[in-house]
Amino acid sequence: MSVLLEVRNLKTHFKTESGLVKAVDGISYHIDEQEIVGLVGESGCGKSVSQLSVMQLIPTPGEIASGEVIFEGQDLLKFKSGGAEMRSIRGAKIAMIFQEPMTSLNPVLTIGRQLTETLELHLSMDREASREQAIELLKLVGIPSAESRVEDYPHQFSGGMRQRVMIAMALSCDPRILIADEPTTALDVTTQAQLLELMKDLVDRFRASLIIVTHNLGVVARYAQRIYVMYAGRIVEEGTTKDIFAHPLHPYTIGLLKCVPRLDEEPDKKLVPIVGLPPNLVNMPPTCAFLPRCPYSSGICRQKHWPELRQIHDNHYIACYADIQEKQGESITK
Amino acid sequence: MNLSQNDTLLDIKNLKMYFPVTRGLLRRKVADVKAVDDISFKVKRGETLGLVGESGCGKTTTGRCILRLYRPTAGHVYFEGLDICALPEAKIRPLRRKMSLIFQDPFGSLDPRQSAGAIVGEPLKIQHLVSSKQEYGERVEELFRMVGLDPAMVDRVPHEFSGGQRQRIGVARALACEPSLIICDEPISALDVSIQAQVINLLEELQEGLEGLTYLFIAHDLSVVRHISDRVAVMYLGRIVEITDSKVLYENPLHPYTKALLSAVPIADPFVEEKRERIILKGEVPSPLNPPAGCSFHPRCSLAIPECSQAVPPLRDIGGGHEVACIRL
């Protein structure tokens, strides 16, 4: 499959009163056609900011300091955020679903109006055609009695239903890429499962690619083909899902897998927490950001500049100096 | 668990908590929200019972009824043999010494103007558990050490702590009166993944160290509940649909809702995920204002037959303490 979106050395910084926050500090990743990619990390690791940067939706005081976002042969970062070129891509060719289904819909417009707005803007449909298309879209995402519900306001929908509307809206212009930023975090478990399954089916049907941004390792294990693990604004490990779960090589990934209880393991198995706290992104040290929490650190980690991603084999890369052989010796997963 | 494991600490019988829905100027009652509708279960001293379910299933309400933060509509809560539902308000306070609560939100549940030490020590003063200033100081320091906080931080205020540390303050406060029961209401869901394990381990270590400490662990995250609990009760729309050992729950779930709930939780292992059967429930949880007749799960259930909508299925023991409320089993 050919590469659909390629992000090169993206840096997004926020100028705050306490200093420069390097929320995204030089990340490169790509997504192929019809691929599902997972972007995993904890809050504040820059996973959402990296996606908002691609869409050029960075709020002040943030700014994209450098990098390239290559999509269909063009560098999206060359476009003005509010310009016509960017607007023709944002929401149309690259669509996004946000975490908060409660706040990402406009409370004073009907669901129908919010759907037709996108259709009229991007596909130049007229009122009647767009309304019909809106109803079709609501049916597509499994909203019962779509003909009447199209007139409803967001508060008349439950959380799960609102997120379905968001999916309908994102898919309305037949996007090439769907970015789902923690799409199900605010929802109940069974609703979560429904929506992820729906999203996967629709992405298959529309032959689109999907980027799932999440902190939930289970979700990526279930859906993603490839994974990027982020920590403190940088990618620390990348590889195919199976490779990463079978042989995690970065100490942070290993730590994450050990500290989350699994449904299928012995309940009395002790969890191994990652010691310490995620770093403050202001005034980051020049060394590896995970160093203070890392059980595998050695002298080299303290002396050298933070590690760049290096290839271990095929598609597996890690940003770590530690000896991999030694780490593979112990049983990491079950 | 310790020697006194057959000793029942908490015995809940036919507990109901209805909230009235009122309309109009005269606040006329028009309906009831049956948040908790006739549930019964027991918790042994020293064990951890997990209470799991989706939002609105009544798990938090159950916890609050046990603490008598709500006065239940009907039913009994026997705590150490005493029916606390029948007690007058004045007799509740001494009882609160023995039961405490850890809240979900480590930001909202701590007074931002109080020092960490004052937050942890306040229950000691209210319950008159210390006789001198020195004893108070020593006890607060001890509590700080128990939860893995540096006693030198007693004078700091909550915003100086991280989320995980704040939750430790909440745990220390809950432990202050040496309670026998702690109700943990979603204690880790507001924390980061790498911090969650720290708090789970802390709760487990405390239980190992303090004889007879019992938890009612309320959460929506099934893998966490299963990890920390000895037994798990699954709730759906105000009722318990299944109670069993946490091991059995994953290996042999019986209620169709439990099965769907388990299957909805992804396991962080692509090889396991490939082979797992996925049960995707249709529709959403109905409103507790107007729950379906009979078994409230029947409209979404793949096993449903006409009889399911006739009567509420009772929770029955099918052997080994595995209780399930379904007529199709």
Which key terms come to mind for this protein?
heterodimer, A: 334 residues, alpha/beta, Rossmann fold, 12 helices, 12 strands, 24% strand, B: 329 residues, 2 domains, eight-stranded mixed beta sheet, four-stranded antiparallel beta sheet, disordered N terminus
What does this structure look like?
The complex is a heterodimer of chains A (334) and B (329). With 334 residues, chain A is α/β, with parallel strands linked by helices. Chain A has two domains: 3-224, Rossmann fold, CATH 3.40.50.300; 231-328, no CATH class. Chain A is 32% helix and 24% strand. Chain A has twelve helices and twelve strands. In chain A, strands 6-7-8-3-9-10-12-11 form an eight-stranded mixed sheet, with helices on both faces. Chain A is globular, with a radius of gyration of 21 Å. Chain B is of the alpha/beta class. Chain B has two domains: 8-98 and 179-324, P-loop containing nucleotide triphosphate hydrolases (Rossmann fold); 109-178, no CATH class. Chain B has ten helices and twelve strands. In chain B, the strands form two sheets. In chain B, strands 6-7-8-3-9-10-12-11 form an eight-stranded mixed sheet, sandwiched between helices. Chain B has a four-stranded antiparallel sheet with strand order 2-1-4-5. In chain B, a hairpin with a 2-residue loop joins strand 9 (231-236) and strand 10 (239-245). The radius of gyration of chain B is 21 Å and the shape is globular. The two termini of chain B are 32 Å apart.
Q: How many domain units of chain A? A: 2
Distance between the termini of chain A: 32 Å
Low-confidence stretches of chain A: 326-334
Distance between the termini of chain B: 32 Å
Q: Find the CATH topology of the largest domain in chain B.
A: Rossmann fold
Largest interface: A-B, 45 and 45 residues
CATH homologous superfamily designation of the largest domain in chain B: P-loop containing nucleotide triphosphate hydrolases
The fraction of residues in strands of chain B falls at 15-25%
- Any idea how many domains of chain B? 2
* Strand and helix order of chain B: EEEHEEHEHHHEHEHEEHHHEE
Number of helices of chain B: 10
As a whole number of angstroms, the C-alpha radius of gyration of chain A is 21 Å
Strand order in the largest sheet of chain A: 6-7-8-3-9-10-12-11
The largest β sheet of chain B comes out as:
8 strands, mixed
Q: How much helicity do the residues of chain A have?
A: 25-40%
How much of the sequence of chain A is in beta strands?
15-25%
